[in-house]
Backbone:
């Protein structure tokens, strides 16, 4: 029931449109449950049945979304007199309908089939360090996605069009500026860190950390930062992820017995995602106002909790005694734990193992390569060499194999171009949001140290979560922080934090 | 893909019909996953979202099933030249389509809403031992279900029509005969057991049985009898159930620390259900030939494993050492365990706690009452007294409260009339199938004692599971056992078993 959005006297077409959209939305969240189950609970041989179920839900969703009736209702509402929230709902539904309608079903199916074939080819290529096995599939994906973009808008840069699949309401120009600024800030900063003779307590978490005890610790951390167990669960999966809605949003994590910080930070990261979904208005479940804004905003929530809370000095003051409760043999001080959790790695080639600084150069490299591929400025065959050159240029390290190089990520095997940048954009947005929250909340640092997270939850809820998709991305940031989405706060944050850590 | 059913040159309309039906079927099994999750994994506050998702899938399924195109395809195929399997598929789809099409959507919704209101009323009535709280809802359900039956066939006994919701291809006359025969056999047999001075080892399982160890034991039992863990899981839920298909079929159980036999037998019962689904042909997933026959056949599989295997003497010879491995303090002999697991309770009023014999009188009572209610031969207000009278007459015990009497089961709060008999019919069918398997498998008893279950699995798979919905219920029984579905084998089985146990 869309109580809020329909409280004023909306035109009948609006009510009908929302009614139709709700079914589309419920099909989407139902698929989410099936996917969660597939990754967390499903027995090994259940895949054939699950694939049929998921593809049936996806095709029904597509049919409902592109139904002529939706098109007519949207036309009817074009000049209707709508309230702000109603207008926002219509804008979002129109955008989804138009995008789905623009692309022929055969092409969508061909992309989906190519992904199914590309995935095992990518796995094999990565396993055998043999880019050529994957090359024809990547080539096909680039061609198909260019075609896809052309159906949506033949007059625009195809990479921009693809980027908008993930960020419909964030200007590509601004995104590109932010990524360029990251590169300009971080390349010299990482150089300086390499040359620094700071001696961080990097061995604080050495040793063996029992996985079951780590799990208890993760549960206590989630309780401490305010996870609502009546609306969530923690499970393990091979890749941590979050799945759900405002009534039921679940997180997963994984445990490595030699790296307890990995599970702690990834649990907190997923918590940030979950809090966003759990903070969406319940009365708007099934409408765009009850859905989260796009990937960068989602990632801003996970990164805010992971980095600005979870990797901060006050948080480690709170957390260190909790860690000791579970692992009595642990003897690190809060300062040592803070240093270990924030060390910058000198020779890490793998994105998912990167620290908070080098991470963004991994992203910038992928962004530049996929943009040039889609634009036709780079041949697929040249990807390995360009990849390695950029690693050398930006990070001062050169992969010796493609498995540790351009074959490390799954994303391109799905044909996902335009997705990678949202990771960095989210981190940058996190810094801006946290800085605004810090301005408005009295002694936020002290509150974190005391485990008093209520005010931060309230701030995020009021300024971000409660709005669903009402505002476009930049407008949401402006309303929350008083200024456009910029990289300045991230730059300040890393300069201050890493300046202190490495004596820059 | 319906490879088998479409291997001969089927008319195009048949291929199209099957294609449409597959989506309907996948929506159904997808809902099954959502329901499993709701009962096993979902956090407490997830209900509002789950209800919306499930009702959306149900209404889409209904729309697809009653679509005009399905009707036209079925008409087109009326005189088509089809192979046996194809004709069976069309028969099943036609029956589902016609039934869904006959009942106005508003009535289906009214029944569903009445169930939603009746459930809390029933819970309250049961809690407070106050039938009057539930009475108006039961009244409404009886009226609505009579109306429902009238839409399907105004010229037939409405109870028969409702029974066919659960048993579309089993003659009601035969069902009624079998239930009457159960009453005639069991009432005097239970009387004789009451008067017997046999001294069974009923205290064999007294004491406290740790739930975690019981769970390990249940897992070992499932492995011993051949559960395929790559296609299944064991979890706990408040009511044990089975959910899934030929690729992924999961069971649940529950643990009572004072009653280890309860968990063991219920785990084996659910295993029987799961084996049926796991034995359906994978190549027919999504077609009627890849779906299980109806409730009585399903229950025959669970009861065969629970009673004819799980409560048998050779099985307890196999099982007793396994129980001792997990509970070293347990000192019962196989004979003692067998006696304890098969004791007939003298004063149990509750169906779900009944033994293998008295169980069927609980069912017969419900059957007679609901049949008379739907036929208009019994007033709702008179249910409590008739219930108590029948308990006195058939079982020699009289409930002192309606909570322990006619309010004990949830089924009528859902408006499910015609469902109860399938429990007993399944047990009777189990006896007939087991008897046929026993004839055909050399030394089945010895094989059970040795834990060699392969031949029994093969027999059940070939004679029951592999056929999906190809044969009507009685035809399936005839093909498997060489005779019509009858009560004789059940009667022989209980006379021999309980004759020996109680020296009758």
Residues:
């Amino acid at each position: 029931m869309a109580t809020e959005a329909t409280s004023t006297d909306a035109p009948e077409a609006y009510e009908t449109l929302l009614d139709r959209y709700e079914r589309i939305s419920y099909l989407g969240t139902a698929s989410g449950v099936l996917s969660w189950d597939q990754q967390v609970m499903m027995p090994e041989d259940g895949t054939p049945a699950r694939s049929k179920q998921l593809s049936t839900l996806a095709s029904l969703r597509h049919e409902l979304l592109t139904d002529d009736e939706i098109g007519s209702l949207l036309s009817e509402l074009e000049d209707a007199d709508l309230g702000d929230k109603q207008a926002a709902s219509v804008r979002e539904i129109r955008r989804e309908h138009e995008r789905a309608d623009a692309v022929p079903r055969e092409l969508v199916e061909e992309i989906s089939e190519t992904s199914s074939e590309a995935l095992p080819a990518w796995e094999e290529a990565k396993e055998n360090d043999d880019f050529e096995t994957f090359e024809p599939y990547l080539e096909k994906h680039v061609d198909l996605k260019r075609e896809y973009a052309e159906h949506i808008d033949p007059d625009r840069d195809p990479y921009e069009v693809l980027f908008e699949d993930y960020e419909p309401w964030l200007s590509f120009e601004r995104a590109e500026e932010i990524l360029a600024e990251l590169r300009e800030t971080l390349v010299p900063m990482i150089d300086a860190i390499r040359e620094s003779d700071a001696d961080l307590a990097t061995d604080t978490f050495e040793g063996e950390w029992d996985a079951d005890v780590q799990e208890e610790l993760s549960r206590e951390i989630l309780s401490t930062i305010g996870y609502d167990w009546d609306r969530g669960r923690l499970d393990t999966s091979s890749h941590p992820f979050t799945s759900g809605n405002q009534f039921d949003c679940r997180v997963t994590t994984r445990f490595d017995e030699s790296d307890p910080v990995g599970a702690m930070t990834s649990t907190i990261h997923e918590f940030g995602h979950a809090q966003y979904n759990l903070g969406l208005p319940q009365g708007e479940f099934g409408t765009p106002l009850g859905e989260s804004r796009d990937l960068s905003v989602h990632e801003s929530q996970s990164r805010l909790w992971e980095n600005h809370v979870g990797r901060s000095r006050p948080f480690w003051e709170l957390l260190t005694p909790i860690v000791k409760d579970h692992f009595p043999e642990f003897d690190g001080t809060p300062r040592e734990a803070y240093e270990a959790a924030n060390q910058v790695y000198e020779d890490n080639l793998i994105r998912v193992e990167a620290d908070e600084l080098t991470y963004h150069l991994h992203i910038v490299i992928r962004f530049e390569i996929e943009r040039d591929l889609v634009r036709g400025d780079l041949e697929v065959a040249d990807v390995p060499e360009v990849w390695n050159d950029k690693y050398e240029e930006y990070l001062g390290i050169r992969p010796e194999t493609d498995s540790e190089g351009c074959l490390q990520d799954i994303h391109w095997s799905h044909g996902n171009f335009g997705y990678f940048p949202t990771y960095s954009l989210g981190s940058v947005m996190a810094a801006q949001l946290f800085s605004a929250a810090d301005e408005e909340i009295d002694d936020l640092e002290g509150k974190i140290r005391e485990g008093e997270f209520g005010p931060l939850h309230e701030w995020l809820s009021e300024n971000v979560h409660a709005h669903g998709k009402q505002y476009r991305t930049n407008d949401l940031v402006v309303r929350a922080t008083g200024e456009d989405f910029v990289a300045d706060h991230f730059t300040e944050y890393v300069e201050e934090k890493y300046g202190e850590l490495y004596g820059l």
Summary: The two ends of chain B are 55 Å apart (CA to CA).
